[in-house]
């Protein structure tokens, strides 16, 4: 960036940027519009806009204070999209200063959430991201008397639909909520027949401009941003639960030789959930619970649960190519060639009839030799687990092993090749799907009353 120039003269040069500035944030209760402002040095302001429908909102003083805290958290987390464009050495927070606890939490989110971004760009960010601390400590949050009601995030794929159906079955009041303009997610949300809420999010168009001008680019912890948006909305609307559908498997990343673990899904993992939920209860609203309903389950257990109803077969998709802000989307919801398509096909196959699965995807991915490399990566065979939201290698190996024993699948090209070439090398491993379907009851934040009913429901189902 040419730091001498502003306004129309301004040009982005990522190597010349010295400072990333959190310039301002605001929420207007009359319109439901939140604005989040950022700058590099003296650049024009990058403004992200988040909208909570249903305005005007009438708020008492305690709720206003909680909204200010939730808004600031959102401002600080959503800054990751802009910060990454230049990863400058200095971070400045204009306006209200933050304390050590907040700074440490943000450093954790940025370092880990940008782990894949740093690895792919050959950058070293660990130890480099310093949020300025300006006050010794901040006030603890109070209980706001929030109403028992869950804002449940829906992403258009199988996971959130499993949560929504589980909550419906145990009688938890819920609003099915999504962020952004995806028509696919809208169709799934409407298909639930439950109350829905669509939160607006518009990234600053300037970000797309500087991307074209050579900004650093790559993956960001989008679930952290979505979590902060949902938290703001829950406080505005007066609800006591924000529910995500992040499974146990998402806490495990890709093991890269010479680098270690890099987790594409870091902000879906337990470390983020636990820290974010604790921060929200400590600093925003003591009676707001943020949790993932599926944390005790593996991807395979979620897939099995999904197959219990065919109500969403013609509507859902887990293929992330549907969710680009810019660019093309698959014609029939499943591109059939990406890691998510490969994994979801494989994970559902042990639990679903073959005709049903093939009709969902419109083709049989396991009988297509051109997809061999994609499945190899899932199996962690001659490659690492893809940077995508897919299950652990052991889950893919167990699912594939199960298919080698099923007459309807065992003759398909990819399954045959697994049986011939890969399975003999796995003789020491427990390859039973049943070993991966257990529920882990220790690391989760599901409120006790919900957990009791939920586990009883899952045990019955
Ligand atoms: C849909 C998708 O997978 N997008 C990823 C892709 O972005 P791409 O450039 O191809 O297109 P757009 O999504 O349209 O984004 C345009 C640019 O906007 C920037 N950006 C976007 C969203 C945002 O929140 N912040 C941003 O800065 C970015 O510069 C884009 O270039 O590749 C990008 C680079 O690797 C990814 O960052 C895009 O991922 C989206 C943020 C996204 O929403 N992805 C989810 C489908 C996703 O990956 N979910 C993960 C959850 C992981 C987590 O820890 O949260 C998952 O399912 O595993
Ligand atoms: N646009 C969105 N708005 C709100 N929440 C979202 C959005 N996209 C994803 N999520 C949530 O983020 C979490 C992770 O998304 P993910 O894509 O793994 O889930 P999914 O779409 O429900 O299922 P699948 O893994 O099959 O794609 C889920 O809780 C999902 O509901």
UniProtKB/TrEMBL annotation:
Pfam families per the UniProt record, alphabetical: MurL_epimerase_C, MurL_N
Listed InterPro entries: MurL, MurL_C, MurL_epimerase, MurL_N
GO terms, molecular function: isomerase activity
Pathway info: Cell wall biogenesis; peptidoglycan biosynthesis
Major enzyme class: isomerase
Keywords, alphabetical: Cell cycle, Cell division, Cell shape, Cell wall biogenesis/degradation, Isomerase, Peptidoglycan synthesis
Reactions it catalyzes: UDP-N-acetyl-alpha-D-muramoyl-L-alanyl-L-glutamate + ATP + H2O = UDP-N-acetyl-alpha-D-muramoyl-L-alanyl-D-glutamate + AMP + diphosphate + H(+)
MurL N-terminal domain: residues covered: 12-293
Residue stretches making up the MurL C-terminal domain: 316-425
Enzyme Commission number: 5.1.1.23
Biological function: Cell wall formation. Catalyzes epimerization of the terminal L-glutamate in UDP-N-acetyl-alpha-D-muramoyl-L-alanyl-L-glutamate.
HAMAP family: MurL (MF_02209)
Protein family membership: Belongs to the MurL family.
Protein name: UDP-N-acetyl-alpha-D-muramoyl-L-alanyl-L-glutamate epimerase
């Amino acid at each position: 960036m040419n730091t001498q120039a502003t306004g129309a003269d301004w040009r982005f040069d990522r190597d010349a940027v010295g400072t990333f500035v959190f310039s301002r944030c605001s929420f207007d209760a009359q319109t439901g519009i939140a604005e989040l402002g950022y700058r590099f040095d003296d650049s024009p302001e990058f403004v992200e806009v988040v909208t909570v429908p249903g305005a005007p909102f009438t708020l008492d003083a305690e709720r206003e204070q909680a909204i200010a805290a939730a808004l600031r958290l959102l401002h600080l987390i959503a800054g990751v999209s802009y910060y990454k464009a230049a990863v400058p050495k200095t971070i400045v927070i204009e306006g209200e200063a933050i304390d050590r606890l907040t700074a440490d939490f943000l450093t954790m989110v940025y370092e880990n959430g940008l782990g894949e971004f740093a690895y792919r760009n050959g950058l070293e960010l660990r130890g480099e991201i310093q949020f300025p601390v300006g006050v010794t400590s901040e006030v603890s949050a109070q209980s706001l008397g929030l109403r028992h009601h869950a804002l449940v995030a829906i992403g258009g794929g199988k996971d959130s639909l499993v949560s929504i159906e589980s909550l419906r079955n145990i009688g938890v009041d819920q609003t099915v909520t999504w962020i952004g303009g995806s028509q696919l997610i809208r169709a799934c949300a409407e298909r639930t027949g439950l109350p829905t809420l669509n939160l607006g999010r518009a990234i600053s168009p300037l970000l797309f401009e500087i991307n074209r001008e050579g900004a650093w680019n790559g993956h960001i912890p989008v679930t952290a941003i979505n979590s902060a948006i949902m938290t703001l909305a829950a406080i505005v609307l007066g609800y006591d639960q924000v529910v995500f559908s992040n499974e146990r498997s998402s806490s495990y990343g890709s093991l890269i030789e010479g680098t270690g673990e890099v987790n594409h899904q870091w902000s879906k993992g337990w470390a983020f959930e636990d820290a974010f939920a604790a921060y929200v209860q400590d600093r925003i609203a003591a009676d707001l619970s943020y949790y993932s309903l599926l944390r005790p389950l593996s991807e395979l257990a979620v897939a099995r649960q999904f197959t219990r109803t065919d109500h969403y077969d013609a509507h859902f998709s887990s293929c992330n190519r549907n969710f680009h802000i810019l660019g093309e989307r698959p014609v029939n919801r499943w591109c059939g060639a990406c890691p998510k398509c490969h994994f979801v096909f494989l994970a559902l196959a042990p639990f679903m009839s073959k005709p049903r699965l093939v009709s969902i995807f419109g083709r049989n991915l396991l009988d297509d030799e051109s997809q061999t490399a994609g499945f190899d990566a899932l199996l962690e065979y001659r490659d690492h687990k893809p940077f995508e939201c897919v299950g652990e290698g052991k889950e893919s190996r167990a699912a594939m092993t199960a298919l080698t024993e099923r007459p309807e699948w065992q003759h398909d090209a990819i399954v045959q090749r697994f049986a011939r070439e890969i399975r003999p090398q796995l003789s020491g491993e427990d390859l039973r799907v049943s070993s991966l379907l257990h529920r882990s009851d220790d690391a989760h934040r599901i409120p006790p009353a919900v957990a009791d009913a939920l586990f009883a429901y899952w045990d019955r189902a």
